[in-house]
Amino acid sequence: MLTRMGSRFTAVMLGLVLGGAALAKEPAKQQVKESSSRSAIPTRLDAVIDGALADKRLVGTVVLVARDGQVIYHRAAGQADREAHVPMREDAVFRLASVSKPLVSAAAMALVDQGKLGLEDPVTKWLPTFRPKLEDGREPVITVRQLLTHTAGLDYGFFQPPAGPYARAGVSDGVDESGLSLEENLRRLASVPLGFEPGTRWHYSLSIDVLGAVVASAGGAPLPQVVERLITRPLGLRDTGFVAKVPKRLATPYADGKPEPVRMGAHHEMSVGGVSFRFVQGRALDSRAYPSGGAGMVGSAGELLKFLEAVRTGGAPLFQSSATAAAMLAPQTGTLELPNEPGWAFGFGGAVLVDATKAATPQSPGTWRWAGAYGHTWFVDPRRRLSVVALTNTAIEGMSGAFQRDLRDAVYAGLAAEASTPPAPAR
To answer: Which of 7, 98, 191, 420 is catalytic?
Structure first.
């Protein structure tokens, strides 16, 4: 069931607003080109990054900005491994945590686009044994759309007390150690009563893990293979997947600390807003860990940018119809705004800005964004033809600390400065 603790932490998770690897050199259908044009943004971004590193709020980061399909800013800064004195590189690979969600959601939408999956399909069409009940014993229908939009009545264990229902059932959140299969984790998840009638509320949850199982069933193969076939291979993404292929390029994770971030051990627990996370580093290297659609992927900044730009520009080569990409970028929760985040609704794979004034953000209405607990943020502003990726190795600062807000504001201050600067006279 849902708790007040969960509500508090949802507010932390929703305090994301900005939330690379060097762009792949191999040919791919979707390319993001580098621009040589002058921009007012880089100086401002450099100041934000330098400040976060100097203040020891971050250990390392890769930040990329694309405008009109061209990279106008790219920088790797700080350390990938502080203790080993390994500098951050643009091709660093990160544990993505919830940045996995837009990728798996896009795989689901690709199947919808192909007519192999329906948004209104009951989940039981694809997962006959996934039948969680409400507290009163009724078994409601849960749809694919409700999984995509976090309105299915599910929860996360870190929203609950340490001995809460998910802990008692042994449910994995997808970033902890797990010898479970995906099927076994869903069996355990379905054994716990739903928190609310599906479709009546929005609550961040394990629904994308369930969606991953639906994608696997509808796609006719294990989830990693379906995501590769539908998303990463068409875009030429070699580093994005459920297991790190080159372990030495995997950035070392750190957790917020004073006077500087603390290096995470093999098992690391941290508390944010009174809620505890449990991170297990080996999951990113363990092919036996179940593929968590909501938190289990790894990838690089450059490859994430390429994916975001593909969705922003109409979905090719992922989708046959540009309407499918437009659906990902559109509000999909009706009148349900995100709790404690006025002005934001939810689309497919991320939140969507519906009222910039209420949200107190310089971003344009229609901006699509989300983040990841290991320290990542991203956003796409379609009206500005802008995509921004900021992957860090520092949780939680990189996700919802001052860094993501300052980076966002620096981007828009740079755009405003450009708009107010008269063009240079022709020679």
So the answer is: 98
**With 90 as the cut, is the pLDDT of residue 10 above it?**
no
Q: How far apart are CA 209 and CA 192, in angstroms?
A: 15
392: left (phi over 0), alpha (psi -120 to 50) or beta: beta
Maximum pairwise Cα distance, the chain: 78
Question: Is 321 in the active site?
Answer: no
Q: Is residue 399 part of a domain?
A: yes
Burial of 4 (0-12, 13-18, 19+ CB in 10 A): exposed
Q: What is the pTM of this model?
A: 0.92
Q: Using DSSP bridges, classify how beta strands 394-395 and 254-255 pair: parallel, antiparallel or unpaired.
A: parallel
Domain region containing 115: 109-223
- Indicate the burial class of 25 (C-beta count within 10 angstroms; 0-12, 13-18, 19 or more): exposed
Q: Give the closest residue to 141 by CA, choosing from 185, 194, 216.
A: 194
Q: Are residues 292 and 401 in the same domain?
A: yes
pLDDT tens for 259-307 read 999 999 999 999 877 777 889 999 999 999 999 999 999 999 999 999 9
Contacts of 426 (CB under 8 A, 6+ apart): none
Co-location of 300 and 162 in the same domain? no
